[in-house]
Design a protein that fits this description.
The complex is a heterodimer of chains A (about 350) and B (about 325). Chain A has about 350 residues and is an alpha/beta fold. In chain A, about 40% of the residues lie in helices and about 20% in strands. In chain A, α9 (about 225-240) links the parallel β10 (about 220-225) and β11. Classes of the chains: A alpha/beta (about 350), B alpha/beta (about 325). Chain B: It holds the Pfam family E1_dh.
Chain lengths: ~350, ~325
């Protein structure tokens, strides 16, 4: 059996291999090594944290502080510097500690990095991978738990990927770093401990290609990130009633894989999209709109979205659990479509 | 720093004239409606872009501002293609997709005019970080206005440049107004250069209308950056001949006093007089440069006017690297 490592280790390994392969790859972020200029750590070539969750642990000792750069707490400064470094030939991988901090540095992504190539008539190339994390479920409250990949996905000129498992995380991260565009790589912080089989070699997972994780004929469920596990549980439960759900892990939020989703809906005639982002103008809404437009004649019922409510993420554990989409809510939603199926 | 050579003095005089003629013509043409959108003219501030860029090569990077035409010209961007860009033509430096506020030419080290006030700071330190990481002796220069000095990017970027000793020079063009708002109203520190000490870097305020003052201060700062000694902040006191953008009635400008004195000064004849007196430039050569510059700008206008508009399909091109 192949080796099993955590989601966090898979990301660390992806970074490590990308850095080993290409010297132009540098990492920047707050405490991604930690303890800069602390003498006793320097003597032992040790990092203090390796990132707030430890994702980048060990990379500074291996590659040095010239390539694993602890920044001051200056998101717009180092994110904008990454744009400048990318425009001039490096391949920076800045880490935005939590995607909730995007407000501090959005200009550098929205108005600078994503638009340079277009504004400059095709002369610029911005090969930059922004690592960040999203997701509720860690009792981190409203300013450290949001899911904002959909906001970034609405900006032309950037790609956004959301891996659901260690295998995809490593391969997608390598693909993102090799990509000549701005790619946002959004990690669900509650998945960091998840273990699965991950090859030791350097490999890529294609950006823009969704994966069918379970085949079915009665209902399509499209998921983003860890919502995959909600859908797989739902599919198991529905199977006991003889309903076969097809589960699609979207993987890439921008540009999302319209072909795979639409082909599945043409087969099943029913669609539920599970997206942890707040419900208005999110990725699920976009998918519903496109499927409604492109596959209307194949639909046997309304397209359903199961999302977080239109509230900030609450702190209390019971409220936070209520906030997150779960299998019961999806089953209730599916029941509306399935009643129709039984008629 | 190298003493100003004859060859460099000629180069400077040509660039100063090119900028002035370019901007005066754009001012004129804009009023006829042939140029779409907004333009922010650099006329009056020529000594800064030329005095700084006289020390740079194509391998050095600059970031620019809303008021970017002067920086583009001084950094060596093609006049014909610049004018075509401002007209929104296919032959423009950015194929007509950037316009006045986004003219860029990365091959010349020109990382773009910028529609975001203060947007250039972090990009400049990123380019400087690249220069340092690749162990080159190339530098980055960040031009910014007095308005941009109050953006958060100023603080974050200068602080980071200081702690990492990046090869970057921050050149402030203090033309007294951020749009209509006086610098003396908008800044808690009287002099923008005074803030340098808060970041542990050298800072000085100079006469931005005096080409030689800019040339010398920039030369010293750029040398320092090339030697790996870190960033410098230079505040150049200057004045824009026109409004914030074309169409600005400029009601806020003072009609007398120190401001009027500053407005009345013209660094181009001032430099000519200096260079002729120092035998860096003969009067004949200066006349010839003035004439050539007029012809070059006329050529650029003709090129722009005769160029085709962008093809419709180009709307969709260059969003991504394929």
């Amino acid at each position: 059996m192949a080796r099993r490592i955590t989601f966090m280790k898979a990301i660390n390994e992806g970074l490590d291999m990308a850095m080993e392969k290409d010297e132009r790859v540098i990492l920047l972020g707050e405490d991604i090594a930690g303890g800069a200029k602390v003498d006793h750590l320097a003597k032992q070539n040790e990092d203090a944290w390796g990132g707030v969750f430890g994702v980048t642990k060990g990379l500074m000792p291996k590659y040095g502080r010239e390539r694993v750069i602890d920044t001051p707490i200056s998101e717009m400064g180092y994110m904008g510097a990454s744009v400048g470094a990318a425009a001039t030939g490096l391949r920076p991988v800045p880490e935005l500690m939590f995607n909730d901090f995007i407000g501090f540095c959005l200009d550098t992504i929205l108005a600078q990095g994503s638009k340079m190539r277009y504004m400059f008539g095709g002369k610029a190339k911005i090969p930059m991978t922004i690592r960040t994390c999203h997701g509720a479920g860690a009792s981190a409250a409203a300013q450290h738990s949001g899911s904002y990949y959909g906001i970034l996905a609405s900006i032309p000129g950037i790609k956004v990927v959301v891996p659901s498992n260690p295998y995809d995380a490593k391969g997608l991260l390598i693909a993102a770093i090799e990509d000549d565009n701005v790619v946002v790589f959004s990690e669900d912080k509650t998945l960091y401990g998840l273990k699965d089989e991950v090859p030791e070699e350097y490999y890529k997972v294609e950006i823009g290609k969704a994966k069918i994780k379970r085949e079915g004929t009665d209902l399509t469920i499209v998921t983003i990130g860890k919502m995959l596990y909600v859908a797989l549980e739902v599919a198991e439960r529905l199977a006991k009633d003889g309903i076969e759900a097809e589960v699609i892990d979207l993987i890439t939020v921008a540009p999302w894989d319209q072909e795979t989703v639409i082909n599945s809906v043409k087969k099943t005639g029913r669609l539920i999209i599970i997206d942890e982002a707040n419900p208005h103008n999110n990725t699920a809404t976009d998918i519903a709109s496109v499927v409604g437009d492109q596959a209307f004649d194949y639909l046997d019922g309304p397209i359903k979205k199961v999302c977080a409510p239109n509230t900030p993420v609450p702190f209390a554990t019971n409220l936070e659990q209520l906030y997150l989409p779960n299998a019961d809510r999806v089953i209730e939603t599916a029941a509306e479509l399935i009643d129709d199926l039984k008629k | 720093m190298e003493k100003l050579s004859k060859e460099r003095a000629e180069w400077i005089y040509k660039k100063m004239n090119d900028i002035r003629n370019f901007e005066d013509e754009v001012h004129q043409i804009f009023s006829t409606g042939s140029i779409p959108g907004f333009v922010h003219l650099y006329a009056g501030e020529e000594a800064i872009a030329t005095g700084v860029c006289a020390h740079l090569t194509d391998k050095d990077y600059i970031t620019s501002t809303h008021r970017g035409h002067g920086h583009c010209i001084a950094k060596g961007c093609d006049l014909d293609k610049m004018m075509a860009e401002i007209y929104g033509k296919e032959t423009g430096l950015c194929k007509g997709k950037g316009g006045s506020m986004h003219i860029a030419d990365i091959d010349k080290g020109m990382l773009g005019a910028n529609g975001m006030v203060g947007g250039g700071f972090p990009i400049a330190i990123g380019a400087a970080l690249r220069n340092k990481y690749l162990k080159t002796d190339d530098v980055a220069v960040c031009f910014f206005g007095d308005g941009a000095a109050n953006e958060g990017t100023f603080h974050e970027s200068i602080n980071m440049a200081s702690i990492w000793k990046l090869p970057v020079v921050f050149v402030n063009e203090n033309n007294s107004y951020g749009e209509t708002t006086p610098q003396k109203y908008a800044s808690g520190s009287k002099r923008i250069a005074d803030r340098a000490s808060a970041y542990g870097i050298p800072g000085e305020t100079i006469d931005g209308k005096d080409l030689m003052a800019v040339y010398e201060a920039a030369g010293k700062a750029i040398d320092r950056a090339r030697k790996g000694e870190g960033p410098t902040l230079i505040e150049c006191i200057t004045y824009r001949n026109y409004g914030h953008f074309e169409g600005d009635e400029q009601k806020y400008k003072a009609k007398e006093g120190q401001e009027k004195d500053l407005a009345d000064r013209d660094s181009i004849p001032e430099f000519r007089e200096y260079a002729v007196a120092e035998k860096l430039l003969s009067a004949e050569k200066a006349d010839q440069i003035e004439q050539t510059s007029v012809e070059d700008i006329e050529h650029a206008i003709k090129f722009a006017e005769e160029s085709p508009i962008p093809k419709p399909e180009s709307l969709y091109e260059n969003v991504f690297v394929d």
